[in-house]
Amino acid sequence: IVKLLAKHNVKIISTGGTADFIKKLNVPVTEVESITNSPSVFGGRVKTLQPQIFGGILNRRENSEDQKEKAKHKIEDIDLVIVDLYPFEETLAKGGTPEEIIEKIDIGGIALIRAAAKNFNDVVVIPSKNQYQVFCKILEQGAETSLEQRKKFAGNAFEITSKYDSAIRGYFQGTPLRYGENPHQKAEFVGNLEESFIQLQGKELSYNNLIDTEAAITAVYDFKEPAFAIIKHMNACGLAVRNEGQIFEAYKAAYKADPVSAFGGILAANRPIGENIAKLIKKQELFVEVIIAPDFSKEALEIFKEKKNCRVLKWLAPSLPEKLTRTCFTGILAQD
Fold it and tell me: How many CB atoms lie within 10 A of CB 78?
């Protein structure tokens, strides 16, 4: 790719290791330090984070004020940004030490990609090696890109930075689960479950427990009136709504809808659960995976203690995401 750029008389600016590699190809290259007038410091942690670099990327070519500032500070345009991010996920997968993993969190590279993608009107961004082939084909046809092409590259760039940041977030906030939807699948929860509920008793929550519990609690919180839901495998075995003060009646109605399927289900209420409901669950000899509600009476909790494996969760009613997202093929599906 650098040979093609040189063929089109593109001035190449690069950091230390990459600059050395380019020199070995007998391609002219300008080291970034000569542009920034600052050395690479802190073991290479700070190399490109300078106005001379980011000003060259982010200045708007058709904005007269930007152009005045650019001239004043002697900033040169940078029209193309090519970045290969530090291999964070690969280092993590290989079992790197905490120090090695942290050092593979790219800062300057991510910033360069985002800056170039933001200013796609004027700048081309190539955010990974996977984009080289497409870009080389463009170079072979000339030294110009269309706005549509630059916008597509920008979209790819934000996809890459999003996935990269998600992997880093997983490292810091990931909680391994016993397994996924099936025993042979690995799984983790990324986030802070303590923002959503407090687990008062029971075994650790599984992947399926979490999915069904979210479905159950969001179902009952769609109602202002007392509501009770019994969910199993993302399907409602029973859902009932009653007048204020009748959460017990709501439970009985929800259970009555399908007593057989309720076995091994997730129970959710949008009102506190009292002794009467706990006693009835015990009398019914109902095996419950999870029961979640905004609160529980002391008497109810004492009864539930007899079901040691039952997970009892106190719902904290956090603000849930306004959009639901899930992966689909190579992209994401989103809905309100």
Answer: 23
